[in-house]
Specification:
The protein is of the alpha/beta class and about 800 residues long. It folds into 3 domains: about 5-360, Rossmann fold (3-Layer(aba) Sandwich); about 390-585, Rossmann fold (3-Layer(aba) Sandwich); about 605-785, Rossmann fold. The protein is about 35% helix and about 15% strand. The strands form 6 sheets. The protein has a 6-stranded parallel sheet, with helices on both faces. A 5-stranded parallel sheet has the order 1-2-3-5-4, with helices on both faces. Strand 13, helix 16 (about 490-505) and strand 14 (about 515-520) form a beta-alpha-beta unit. Helix 24 runs antiparallel to helix 26 (about 755-775). It is elongated. It starts with 5 loop residues before the first helix and ends in an 8-residue tail after the last helix.
Length: about 800
C-alpha cells in the first residue's frame, strides 16, 4: 500500500478538522461562528438537534474521497448511510464551494458560516439528515437500511461512475441492508460503475452496542468474504495513523477496481469480480469530549447525539464546548474573514468533480425522454366491447420489450421485481434483454446474462432500492410486484414520496423520472395462492401521502393499461401505482376510447348503461353503478346486463373510474373533480352502488364531503380470502354481480316490492353458487361462460 506524502496528509487533516469544526458549529451555534470572542449562552441554539457520533467518521471519509477524486480525476458520488450525520456533507459542500453555488446567500466566509450554522435543524432551515436540500445527496438516511441498494442502483449503467457508500454499523443490522450485501452479484463490470462500500464501525447505536462492531474480526471477515466482498481494514483513534491507513486502503481499493474493470472490459474476463470494500473502525464521536459530567462520552453510546446537553444553561458545558471547538485550531483553517485557508482548499475537487456538484446526484440534469413505441402498434383490436379478452400485463410486456430494445445502446431503462417478471406475464421483455446475473449459469437456466437489464431478487427492499438509485441518477424504470407484497416496501415508498415532495420545492433539483409500481397478481385473482397473497391495501397507504406526488390508476382492461403505462413512463416526480390483472380480461375499450377515458380519469360508459329506458331518456338515471378495477368492472357490467334483461324500464348509468384521485376534491388532490363535475357523473341524490377493487372505506373517505355521499354504497374487499375459485372470491366479499343487483333493488325507491322476486332469484343464485363450488371446484357455468349481453 502506498502512503501519501506528509504535505498531503497535513492537508487531509486540515480538511478533516475544518469539517469537524463546521459540524460542531452546526449542531450548537447560532452566532459567533469564528469564536471571535468567548462563547456566551446567547450564542447557543435554544434547541440542540443533530447527531454528532457518526459525523467525524463521515468527515474523515469525505476528506479522503476528495483526495482520491483530485489525484485520479474520478467521477464519483457518495451515499451517506448514517443519514443522521447531516452536518458532515453540509460542512464539506460548504468547504468546496458547492453549497454556496447552490445557495448563494450561504457565502464561503464568516457571514455564510453563521448562516450555515444557524439554519441547521432550525425552524425554516435544513433538516439534520442528508436530505434533498443537501447538494450531492441522493439518499436521506432518516430511515436506515437503504444506502447500499441505492448505491448499486446508481452504479447500474453508469460505467465510469464510482459510488462510495458509507454503511453505518447500526444500519447494517437492518433487513434491507442485509440483503443489499448480495447486490455485488448483479453488478456488471463492463456496463456498470463500481460501488465501494465503507462499513463504518463506531460501535454504538442510540443506546446499545452494534453487532458487527462486537463480533470478533475474523468472524466479521468470514461473513463479508462469504458475501463475495474483498475487505480492507482500517482502524484506530490517532488521526495521523488513521489518515495513513485510510489513504493507503482507499488507493488499494481503487487500484483493484481499476484492475477488475480492465480485465472485464479489455480482456473479456467474465468471472464474477470480488469487489473491494473498506471496514473503517473508529471510536464513536472521535475528536469530541472524552468525558462530560464525569461520565465517558467518546467511544460510547453517549456520543450518539448531543454530547454536551446544556451549554446554554450550564456554564461548565459552555466552557467545554468552547474548548472542543478550539481544539480544531480554527485559526489555522479559516482566515480572519472566515474563508477556508489554502491548506484546507488545496486538495479539494473543483467543478462537477465535487461531491456536492456531481450531476449524477441531481439526476434530472442527465435525464432523457424515454423512447416509447406508438401505442397503435401495441394495442389490441376491440371491434365490440367484451367481444375478446387478453391478459393485460402480457400485452404490456410486449410494449416494455420494445422500450428495452429502443434503449439497448443508451441503457437507461430497467425492470425490477422479486422473481415475478414471467409470473406477472411480462416475459416478452426477454426478447430484448436478459435478467442480469453474475454468478454461475447452468444449461437449464433461461434468460440469464451478465449484461441484462431485468433485475430480479427475492427482496422487495433491494428491488426498490435499486430502482430508486437508478431513477435519482437520471434514468427510467418500472417495479413489478404481486399486489399483496408491495406492503413490504411501504416504508420505502413513504420515504421516496417525502424526498420528491421536498425536491419539488427546490428549484435547483431537476425533475426525475417517476417511481412506477405495477401491482398485479392482485387480490381478486390470487385465488390459487390464497389468503396470504390477498391484500389490496397498498393503495390506501399511498393515497395518504403528499397529494402533489402520488397517483393511483386502476385500468379496467388491456388498452387502458397501455394508455396508463404510456402516461406514467413519461411522467416526472411522481410515485405512480398501477393496479392491473394478469389473467384474461375482457377488452372493453379500443385505443382511442381508452386514451380519452384515461385522460378524463373517470367517465360514463354509455354503451354499458340503460339510461334511455322505456319512453325516452330521463334527466338523471335511477341508479348509478360505479366501478374501479378490472374485476369490479366486470361484475358491474354483468350486473348491468342482468338489470337490462330483468328490469328494462330501470335507468342505469355505468361509471368507470381509472384515476382514483378523481373522486377527491380539487383542494385535496390536483386530480380531484369539482362538485359540478362529480355530480354530473354520480348525480346529487340518486343511489350509487360502487364496486371497488380494494377496501371499501377508502372510497367513503375520498367522497365523504360530496352531496350524495349518504346515497353511496361501496362494495369491496372485506378481508374474506381463501384458496377458491375466482368468482367465489367476489361472492365471499359481497362484490359479485348478484349482490350488486340486490343492492340496486334495496336502494332504488319502489323496487323493494316491485322487484322482490328478482331479488330472491339473485339470493338463490348466490346460494346455488356456494353448493356448486363446493361440489365441482369450478364456477357456475353461467358465470364462467358469461359474455357482455349486448352480443346476444
Amino acid at each position: 500500500m502506498s502512503v501519501p506524502d506528509e504535505a498531503t496528509l497535513a492537508s487531509l487533516d486540515a480538511q478533516w478538522r475544518a469539517a469537524n469544526y463546521l459540524s460542531v458549529g452546526q449542531i450548537y451555534l447560532m452566532a459567533n461562528p469564528l469564536l471571535a470572542e468567548p462563547l456566551r449562552p446567547e450564542d447557543i441554539k435554544p434547541r440542540l438537534l443533530g447527531h454528532w457520533g457518526t459525523t467525524p467518521g463521515l468527515n474523515l471519509v469525505h476528506a479522503h474521497l476528495n483526495r482520491a477524486i483530485v489525484e485520479r480525476d474520478l467521477d464519483a458520488i457518495a451515499i451517506w448511510g448514517p443519514g443522521h450525520g447531516g452536518p458532515a456533507p453540509l460542512a464539506n459542500s460548504w468547504l468546496d464551494g458547492s453549497y454556496t453555488a447552490t445557495y448563494p446567500d450561504v457565502t464561503r466566509d464568516a457571514a455564510g458560516m453563521a448562516r450555515l450554522f444557524k439554519q441547521f435543524s432550525f425552524p425554516g432551515g435544513v433538516p439534520s439528515h442528508v436530505a434533498p436540500q443537501a447538494p450531492g445527496s441522493i439518499h436521506e438516511g432518516g430511515e436506515l437500511g437503504y444506502s447500499l441498494a441505492h448505491a448499486y442502483g446508481a452504479a447500474c449503467d453508469n460505467p465510469d461512475l464510482l459510488v462510495a457508500c458509507v454503511v453505518g454499523d447500526g444500519e447494517a443490522e437492518t433487513g434491507p441492508l442485509a440483503a443489499s450485501w448480495h447486490a455485488n452479484k448483479f453488478l456488471d463490470p463492463v456496463h456498470d460503475g463500481a460501488v465501494l462500500p465503507i462499513l463504518h464501525l463506531n460501535g454504538y447505536k442510540i443506546a446499545n452496542p452494534t453487532l458487527l462492531a462486537r463480533i470478533p474480526e475474523p468472524e466479521l471477515d468470514q461473513m463479508l468474504r462469504g458475501l463475495g466482498h474483498d475487505p480492507l481494514y482500517v482502524g484506530g483513534e490517532r488521526p495521523a495513523e488513521l489518515h495513513r491507513e485510510l489513504a493507503a486502503a482507499l488507493d488499494t481499493a481503487l487500484d483493484r477496481i481499476a484492475d477488475l474493470r480492465w480485465a472485464a472490459r479489455e480482456q473479456g474476463v467474465r468471472a464474477r469480480p470480488r469487489w473491494p470494500m473498506i471496514v473503517l473502525r473508529t471510536p464513536k464521536g472521535l475528536t469530541g469530549p472524552a468525558e462530560v459530567d464525569g461520565l465517558p462520552v467518546t467511544g460510547t453510546w453517549r456520543a450518539h447525539q448531543i454530547p454536551l446537553a446544556d451549554p446554554r444553561g450550564n456554564p461548565a458545558h459552555l466552557r467545554q464546548l468552547e474548548e472542543w471547538l478550539r481544539s480544531y485550531r480554527p485559526e489555522e483553517l479559516f482566515d480572519a474573514d472566515g474563508r477556508p485557508t489554502a491548506e484546507v482548499l488545496e486538495r479539494l475537487p473543483v467543478g462537477d468533480r465535487r461531491l456536492g456538484a456531481n450531476p449524477h446526484a441531481n439526476g434530472g440534469l442527465l435525464l432523457r425522454e424515454l423512447p416509447l413505441p406508438p401505442l397503435e402498434e401495441c394495442a389490441v383490436e376491440v371491434p365490440t366491447p367484451g367481444a375478446e379478452s387478453h391478459e393485460p400485463t402480457r400485452v404490456l410486456g410486449g410494449m416494455l420489450a420494445r422500450v428495452m430494445a429502443a434503449t439497448a445502446e443508451r441503457r437507461d431503462f430497467r425492470l425490477v421485481g422479486p422473481d415475478e417478471t414471467a409470473s406477472n406475464r411480462l416475459q416478452d421483455v426477454y426478447r430484448a434483454t436478459d435478467k442480469v446475473w453474475q454468478t454461475a449459469i447452468l444449461p437449464v437456466d433461461e434468460h440469464l446474462g451478465h449484461d441484462g437489464r431485468v433485475m430480479e431478487v427475492l427482496s422487495e427492499h433491494l428491488c426498490q432500492g435499486w430502482l430508486e438509485g437508478y431513477l435519482l441518477t437520471g434514468r427510467h424504470g418500472l417495479f413489478s410486484s404481486y399486489e399483496a407484497f408491495a406492503h413490504i416496501v411501504g416504508s420505502m415508498a413513504n420515504q421516496h414520496v417525502k424526498w420528491l415532495r421536498t425536491a419539488r420545492r427546490l428549484p435547483w433539483r431537476r425533475p426525475i423520472a417517476s417511481l412506477n409500481y405495477l401491482l398485479t397478481s392482485h387480490v381478486w385473482r390470487q385465488d390459487h395462492n390464497g389468503f396470504s397473497h390477498q391484500d389490496p391495501g397498498f393503495v390506501d397507504q399511498v393515497l395518504n401521502k403528499a397529494p402533489e406526488v402520488v397517483r393511483v390508476y386502476l385500468p379496467p382492461d388491456t388498452n387502458t393499461l397501455l394508455a396508463v403505462a404510456e402516461h406514467v413512463l413519461r411522467s416526472r416526480d411522481y410515485v405512480n401505482v398501477v393496479v392491473a390483472g394478469k389473467q384474461p380480461c375482457f377488452d372493453w375499450l379500443d385505443l382511442d376510447a381508452a386514451r380519452a377515458h384515461c385522460a378524463a380519469g373517470a367517465g360514463i360508459w354509455e354503451w354499458a348503461g340503460s339510461e334511455g329506458g322505456v319512453g325516452g331518456a330521463p334527466p338523471e338515471p335511477d341508479v348509478v353503478l360505479a366501478c374501479a378495477g378490472d374485476v369490479p368492472t366486470q361484475e358491474v357490467l354483468a350486473a348491468a346486463d342482468l338489470l337490462r334483461r330483468h328490469l328494462p324500464e330501470l335507468a342505469v348509468r355505468v361509471v368507470n373510474v381509472v384515476d382514483i384521485a378523481r373522486l377527491m376534491a380539487p383542494q385535496d388532490h390536483p386530480h380531484g373533480m369539482s362538485d359540478r363535475d362529480y355530480h354530473a357523473l354520480f348525480t346529487r341524490d340518486r343511489p350509487v352502488i360502487f364496486a371497488y377493487h380494494g377496501y371499501p372505506w377508502l372510497i367513503h373517505r375520498l367522497t365523504y364531503h360530496r352531496a350524495n355521499h349518504p346515497q353511496l354504497h361501496v362494495r369491496g374487499y372485506l378481508e374474506e380470502g381463501s384458496t377458491t375459485t375466482p368468482f367465489d372470491m367476489v361472492v365471499r366479499n359481497d362484490l359479485d354481480r348478484y349482490r350488486l343487483v340486490m343492492d340496486v333493488i334495496d336502494r332504488v325507491p319502489g323496487l323493494a316490492v316491485r322487484a322482490a322476486r328478482l331479488r330472491q332469484r339473485m339470493a338463490e343464485t348466490r346460494y346455488r353458487h356456494g353448493r356448486w363450488v363446493a361440489e365441482h371446484g369450478t364456477d357456475l357455468p353461467e358465470v364462467a361462460d358469461w359474455r357482455w349481453g349486448a352480443l346476444a
